[in-house]
Amino acid sequence: MVRPKTEMRKIEKLAARQVCFSKRRRGLFKKAQELSTLCDADIALIVFSATGKLFQYSPSSINQVLERRGLLQSKSVAEPQETSAEMQTAHRRCAILRKELAEKTSVLRQLKGEDLQGLDLKDLNKLEAILESGLTAVVKTKGERMLKEISDLKTKEAQLAEENARLKQQLVIMDTCVGEMRVQDHWDDHHSLELTISSLSSRDALHNHNFSSLDTLLKLGLPTIK
């Protein structure tokens, strides 16, 4: 009895599909190893899973196998070509930069009034326009700087005037306080002097009274004791 042929189709369940992939991949690599050992075959086997993961097998090296078969250029051949292309690009850039530097240097010398003999009328007019434009920019920048300095000086002047007024006000307040203190001291001294004079007057009056009483007693005489 003939066994019915099983139809090959995609496994729908993800877990079952991953298990099947792992088993079949191991079986494939085992067959490749047997083929290489038994038949001395050059084998380079590359497998990517559905998720993009790489699996590879080769008895020696996949790159070596591909190089031997002319399917991959050796790095020793590719690198000099890449280096040569980079060097050519660098040389071109250097040449462009050298040319630009020479042109800018020549224009700078001409702006300084040098090397003007080889210029025609058109070049001289162009150079004159550049100088006029530059001079206009210089004059404008100079004017802006001067205006800024004037504004800064005015601001400082206003600040100094305000500070001067504040100091004058403080001096007036201090003079007023000193005057009041002097008046108070003068009043205290005058009051103290008056008290002293009054005390002295009282003491003199008492002293005179005592002398007057003594004179009276002397004139009347002491009372006779019987």
From TrEMBL:
Nuclease listed as a keyword: no
MF-aspect GO terms: DNA-binding transcription factor activity; protein dimerization activity; RNA polymerase II transcription regulatory region sequence-specific DNA binding
Source species, domain of life: Eukaryota
InterPro entries named in the record: MADS-box/MEF2_TF, MEF2-like_N, TF_Kbox, TF_MADSbox, TF_MADSbox_sf
Subcellular localization: Nucleus
Keywords of the record: DNA-binding, Nucleus, Transcription, Transcription regulation
A Pfam family: K-box
Every MADS-box domain range: 1-61
Domain K-box, first and last residues per copy: 87-177
Database matches in PROSITE patterns: K_BOX, MADS_BOX_2
GO biological process: positive regulation of transcription by RNA polymerase II
Protein name per Swiss-Prot or TrEMBL: Uncharacterized protein
Classification lineage: Eukaryota, Viridiplantae, Streptophyta, Embryophyta, Tracheophyta
